[in-house]
Write a structure and sequence with these properties.
6-stranded mixed sheet, 9 helices, elongated, 2 domains, alpha/beta, 322 residues
């Protein structure tokens, strides 16, 4: 049984794609992910600032990047991000723009600028409105989709959206993404993945059996740190949601009570006015009828007055007595 490092941690990611001996692996990986074929295929590259021991200078970050320059001059920033922290999307754009702008020295011509590709692997969902795990962005005209320039390209691979099982892998791109997502949980190298020389070599770079105790300790500490960070972020999000729910409920109750009192007052006034008007009309009618009846007391008997006014004989009798 074999054990492999989780490639989504910074140490393992840079060991596979950013160390001195990983150039062939990185070339194979990028050709698959960027879908470069034929004359566009990457045949050589330079890894900028290779990752060497000591691998960890601190544990404040939850991402790692690898920089490379292709034989055709294109600059690459390859990043693995494990937590969806605030400002993540802006940092990606900032890093790509900075990599593009800092190529020139003062006074140099803009034509010397080389294109930049920011390739980001996210261990969380970024674009909830899409089910596609791979997204590519360039500068384009909004309505006619005219491409302004391909000098800055942002590519995102959302690992949770990649659902293919081992037996369903068909392309080399599928195999590499499966490697990224699942290598840390495998106990052997599946034939489907071992058939590709680049992936097979990548497994060799993260095989725990070939590592020193110091290297393994670094990896385990980093993995535990990421787990703690993820738990802290989830707790903060849960507490934030609970607080927001409580505040929303309180505000809703206050608004509901206020509206209820306001509506109750309006309804009470309306109903009171309506009842008062009805009662006033009734009393006015009654008093008018009584006045007519009193004027007839001297000329008609009680029965006749009652029949003419609608009053009862008893009511007419009381009027005559009063």
């Amino acid at each position: 049984m074999m054990r492999f490092l989780d490639v989504r941690t910074d140490y393992a990611f840079k060991r596979v794609f950013g160390s001195e001996g990983s150039r062939p692996v990185l070339i194979s990986f990028l050709n698959a992910i960027l879908d470069y074929q034929g004359q566009y295929a990457i045949v050589d590259l330079t890894i900028v600032d290779p990752y060497q021991i000591p691998m960890l200078q601190g544990m404040k970050d939850t991402y790692v990047d690898v920089k490379a320059v292709l034989a055709n001059g294109k600059h690459l920033i390859i990043e693995m991000q494990v937590l969806n922290v605030p400002g993540f999307e802006k940092r990606i754009l900032h890093n790509a723009a900075k990599e593009y702008a800092t190529q020139l020295l003062k006074g140099e011509d803009y034509t010397l600028l080389n294109p930049v590709i920011a390739l980001t692997f996210a261990d969380f969902n970024l674009f909830e409105e899409s089910e596609e795990y791979l997204s590519r962005f360039k500068l384009m005209e909004r309505k006619r989709f005219i491409e302004y320039s391909d000098d800055v390209e942002l590519i995102f691979v959302e690992l949770p959206k990649f659902k293919l099982e081992l037996e369903a892998l068909s392309s080399i791109q599928d195999k590499w993404i499966y490697f990224l997502k699942h290598a840390g949980g495998l106990e052997y190298i599946p034939d489907t993945l071992a058939s590709d020389p680049g992936i097979n070599e990548a497994f060799g770079l993260i095989n725990e059996a070939a590592m020193s105790r110091e290297e393994l300790e670094i990896q385990f500490k980093r993995r535990d740190f990421i787990i703690l960070q993820r738990g802290s972020l989830q707790l903060a999000q849960t507490q934030g949601m609970a607080k927001g729910f409580a505040q929303g409920l309180e505000q809703g109750m206050e608004q509901g009570l206020e509206q209820g009192m306001e509506q109750g007052m309006e309804q009470g006034m309306e109903q009171g006015l309506e009842k008062g008007l009805e009662k006033g009309i009734e009393q006015g009618i009654e008093r008018g009828v009584e006045k007519v009846a009193r004027n007839l007391l001297d000329v008609l008997d009680d029965a006749t007055i009652a029949s003419k006014t609608g009053l009862s004989v008893e009511q007419v009798s009381l009027l005559r007595q009063g």
